[in-house]
Amino acid sequence: MRYLLIDHITELEPGKVIRGVKNVAMSEDFLEFHFPRNPIMPGVMLLEALTQLTGWYEAASSDFKSWFLISRVRKSNFYGFAFPGDQVELEVEPIESEDPSVRAYRGRGTVNGKKKIVADFEGTLIPLDEIEDVQGQKRFYQVLRRELKQR
């Protein structure tokens, strides 16, 4: 199963920041078991949303040549829950890495201005064409950015 956790990319400044949105919907299957009759978006899914947003950051910044794969979470703090109906505003920015072959980032997630997650993580870049259809990803990025004309 594959979860696509970015619903909208609202801003991209290559080399600086990417911002996006994750809408938590009651119909998401992971909420059925986390927790029964008390649905809460799992913290690891918030971290995955930040990681996916980082992938889009690297793809769009490299003309869709690269994608980010997380390898290590340096630090992750959770400050509250994301519930069905919440819109999680996500932000990822590059931070310094001790190893030049490793990319490092800080990600934040908030709901109505209140922190839900702050995480520092790192990973490597891989060729996007090894894991995805590049043209398909470019088109999907346009959908996420709301750049395609509606018919």
Summarize the structure.
With 151 residues, the chain is an alpha+beta fold. 21% of the residues lie in helices and 38% in strands.
Give structural notes.
This protein is of the alpha+beta class and 151 residues long. It has a single domain (8-142), classed as Thiol Ester Dehydrase, Chain A (Roll), CATH 3.10.129.10. Helix content is 21%, strand content 38%. The protein has two helices and six strands. It has helices spanning 43-61, 134-145; strands at residues 8-13, 17-23, 66-78, 87-95, 103-111, 114-127. Strands 1-2-4-5-6-3 form a six-stranded antiparallel sheet. The longest helix has 19 residues, at 43-61. The protein starts with 7 loop residues before the first strand and ends in a 6-residue tail after the last helix.
List keywords for this structure.
single chain, about 150 residues, Thiol Ester Dehydrase, Chain A, six-stranded antiparallel beta sheet, 2 helices, 6 strands
Instruction: Using the alpha-carbon principal axes, give the shape.
Output: globular
Order of secondary-structure elements: EEHEEEEH
Helix content: 10-25%
The total domain count is: 1
CATH homologous superfamily grouping: Hotdog Thioesterase
Number of strands: 6
Structural class: alpha+beta
Order of neighbouring strands in the sheet with most strands = 1-2-4-5-6-3
